[in-house]
Amino acid sequence: MIKREIEISGKKVPFRSSATIPRLYRAKFKRDIFKDLSKLEKSYKGKTENGEELQIEDLEIFENVAYVMAYHADNSIPAKIEDWLDQFDMFSIYEVLPQILELWGENLVTDVTSKKRLAEVSGK
Fold first, then answer.
1. What is the top-level taxon of the source organism (predicted)?
2. How far is Cα 80 from Cα 96, in angstroms, rounded to an integer?
């Protein structure tokens, strides 16, 4: 589990990434976070290199992922994503998105390392 505070619209917002995130995401949005984040990462890299804006669908994926990670860190936030988003001014996705992707990436590395160590300990 990895926890980090990210500043959005002048507020420090806690985000948490762990093995629970894919389940929470699937339960809340009925979608696969691995597919969505893969698509989002490709779009983000392509758009920033070409100076283009992200598509609405990509923005929605980002909002959903950010919300689930924020809820995982603090389940007292609003139950509806729209209410959670309303507390922020318009903010640049390009400022927050890389930090969310980095947090997710750190969690995946931690999971893989843990599984490798478990295999070594158990003699597999």
1. Bacteria
2. 20
Tell me how far apart the alpha carbons of residues 116 and 114 are, in angstroms, rounded to a whole number.
5
Query: Are the beta carbons of 62 and 40 closer than 8 angstroms?
Result: yes
Please report, for residues 11, 26, 72, 85, the alpha-carbon distance to residue 23 in angstroms, rounded to integers and kept in the order given. Answer: 27, 5, 11, 21
CA distances for 119 relative to 11, 15, 20, 111, 124, angstroms: 41, 29, 21, 12, 5
The structural domains of the chain, with segments of one domain joined by +, span 2-122
User: What is the residue whose two structure tokens read 């001014």?
Assistant: 89
pLDDT tens string, the chain, 124 residues long: the values are 789 999 988 889 999 999 999 999 999 999 999 999 988 888 887 776 676 777 888 889 999 999 999 999 999 999 999 999 988 887 766 688 889 888 888 877 755 555 565 556 555 5
Tokens of 78: 């609003």
